[in-house]
Design brief:
Blueprint: H1 4-15, E1 24-26, E2 32-35, H2 39-63, H3 69-72, E3 76-79, E4 84-87, H4 97-101, E5 131-132, E6 139-140, H5 149-157, E7 162-163, H6 165-173, E8 184-187, H7 194-206, E9 216-219, E10 233-236, H8 238-247, E11 258-262, H9 264-267, H10 275-284, E12 305-310, H11 317-321, E13 329-332, E14 346-352, H12 358-368, E15 373-377, H13 381-392, E16 401-404, H14 410-422, E17 427-430, E18 443-448, H15 455-462, E19 472-478, H16 483-490, E20 498-500, H17 505-526
Bound molecules: adenosine-5'-triphosphate.
Residues 160, 162-164, 167, 188, 190-196, 311, 437, 439, 441, 463, 467-468 line the site of adenosine-5'-triphosphate (ATP).
């Protein structure tokens, strides 16, 4: 949910009704985050509520087949005599852009009506014929046809010696940024280099520009806009983008040549001020075919080339059609029979333990990963804060840790990230605000402290390690009751082979008293 205060206001009002026993608020992952019931009742009601919420969304979808009402849904209220359920999945508040752009608890994957899932699901014809990318098909920089000497030098300066397979394929398909014949739809695992795959042709195409104008727009779900004034390439979140289009002089879409929608499946669910129809409409508007000094395009003059990318690209025709792609080419580095692929260099493990033992198990695991930089994912802001405090309450026993969640402001989030990047914190405890796209070098392992609910979440969390061909490990802590669901989730993921990980029992026994004492000191403060 974008703004909890709206839900809380409504709850207050509902609570004053006669016969109301209590209330529970769950986040998008079905995790209770506020409750007036005891623990057992909370679990029971949370399960009911998430089940009903899924049914309501599915019902809205089936009533509005092909439309986007379920995604645009702001608030749905369902009443019976004793219960009232309020679903506010994407509540937005215009002024609160940072909060909107970094959300926790937004489900990665909405439950789909049964008819849509599985093999019989409709797929756009061009998605059935992908340009398959071979995993080993990188290209030495010296053999990249048409690569400008300045770009070659810049890539060398970054330490790059070759284009990764997805980058070589995108370069070929766009003729190094010179062809506007096709739009591109890129689906490749996390860390495979999708950013440079779209950035290189764009930069190559714009390299000869004479006048600075906004020529390329990259829309991302969660990164803050880092440009001011007149720019050639704008990288923006939907909230910031709309604010700049309305208020910043010199930022308009009339000279646009490239539109990139990164993390496309995630962005299609962000409806901030109808950003997508607004931008798509601007890109299809006839453009002045004036002699534009930057365009070295040999064909398709004036057409905005669109590139969409994700490791978990949606195949839902209704969603993809909203992008109005032109003769799209589907570049796929994924297995045909599974929806999502993991990096080949990723090794997966699970640790089954009682829920109450998770803090102890996490600590022993962190000790076992002594030299590694580790990201620990939890299911909620509260859980992130609690675990962060617990680790900080065990100096010398737990590695130095920082916490990252959207409860913190942008400055605190940046400080946590920079402590992790610099090595001052070896562990970053994070909520799902960090799941997508974040590229931190040298992360050796990811721990799912709370098991992910959706396959997409698993793929993006795990993808913070094993990037750019490096090896990495993902560990998932599972309560016995989570195991079945987790196995089901893995069926949607290619090459997922999860081994059991055995922790040293001596360490578990010896650390238990310290962890119990730290928990006792931290939890009351956290609550
Ligand atoms: N040609 C290359 N040679 C060496 N390193 C590269 C190359 N291209 C990209 N990288 C590095 O690989 C890492 C992953 O790239 P990138 O962030 O683009 O992945 P991605 O596919 O967008 O992942 P995600 O889906 O998680 O966002 C980055 O650290 C980047 O600097």
């Amino acid at each position: 949910m974008g703004d909890l205060s709206v839900v809380e206001d409504t709850l207050k009002r509902i609570s004053s009704h006669k016969g109301i026993l209590g209330s529970v608020i769950i986040n998008g992952d079905g995790i209770p985050i506020r409750s007036t019931f005891n623990a057992a009742e909370t679990q029971q009601y949370a399960a009911h509520v998430s089940c009903l919420a899924a049914k309501i969304r599915a019902a809205v979808r089936s009533l509005d087949r092909g439309g986007d009402a379920a995604d645009e849904l702001h608030v749905v209220r369902v009443r019976s005599r004793r219960h009232e359920i309020l679903i506010a999945p994407n509540y937005e508040r215009g002024q609160d852009l940072d909060k909107y752009d970094v959300e926790d608890g937004v489900p990665e994957e909405e439950p789909q009506p049964k008819a849509k899932a599985g093999k019989g699901a409709p797929v756009l014809p061009w998605m059935r014929l992908p340009v398959n990318i071979e995993p080993g098909a990188g290209m030495p920089l010296e053999s990249v046809k048409g690569l400008d000497a300045r770009l070659l030098a810049s890539l060398h300066a970054c330490g790059y010696t070759e284009l990764f397979p997805v980058q070589a394929a995108a370069w070929r398909e766009t003729a190094g940024g010179r062809s506007a014949a096709h739009d591109l739809c890129i689906c490749a695992p996390t860390g495979s280099g999708k950013t440079l795959a779209y950035a290189l042709p764009i930069v190559a195409a714009l390299a000869g520009r004479l006048v600075p104008r906004l020529r390329a727009l990259v829309v991302l779900p969660t990164r803050d806009l880092a440009a001011q004034g007149t720019v050639d390439i704008l990288v923006a979140t939907p909230g910031r983008l709309m604010a700049h289009l309305r208020g910043t002089p010199g930022i308009g879409l009339e000279h646009l040549r490239f539109l990139v929608v990164d993390e496309m499946d995630r962005l299609l669910r962000q409806s901030y001020q109808n950003w997508l129809p607004h931008v798509v409409e601007a890109t299809t508007r006839p453009q002045a075919a004036s002699a534009d000094p930057i365009t070295a395009c040999s064909s398709g003059r004036g057409r905005v080339v669109k590139v969409v990318a994700s490791a978990t690209l949606t195949r839902d025709p209704a969603k993809i059609e909203r992008l109005a792609l032109h003769c799209p080419r589907y570049l796929a580095l994924t297995a045909a029979d599974h929806r999502y692929a993991l990096p080949r260099e990723l090794h997966e493990y699970k640790v089954v333990c009682a829920g109450a033992d998770k803090p102890l198990v996490a600590l022993v695991l962190l000790q076992a990963l002594a030299a590694e930089r580790v990201i620990v994912f939890t299911a909620s802001i509260e859980s992130t804060q609690r675990l962060g405090r617990l680790l900080q309450a065990l100096p010398g026993v737990a590695p130095p840790a920082a916490a990252f969640s959207s409860a913190e402001g942008p400055a605190a989030r940046a400080a946590a990230l920079s402590a992790f990047q610099s090595g001052a914190a070896r562990v970053l405890v994070a909520s799902d605000a960090l799941t997508r796209g974040m590229d931190v070098a040298g992360v050796g392992a990811v721990i799912n402290y709370d098991a992910p609910t959706f396959a997409k979440t698993y793929v993006h969390r795990a993808g913070r390690t094993a990037r750019a061909g490096q090896h990495g490990r993902v560990f998932t802590l599972l309560r016995p009751e989570d195991v079945r669901h987790f196995k089901g989730l893995l069926r949607k993921v290619d090459n997922a082979y999860v081994k059991d990980y055995k922790l040293p029992s001596a360490a578990l026994t010896s650390l238990r008293p310290q962890v119990d004492a730290a928990l006792a000191s931290v939890l009351p403060a956290a609550q």
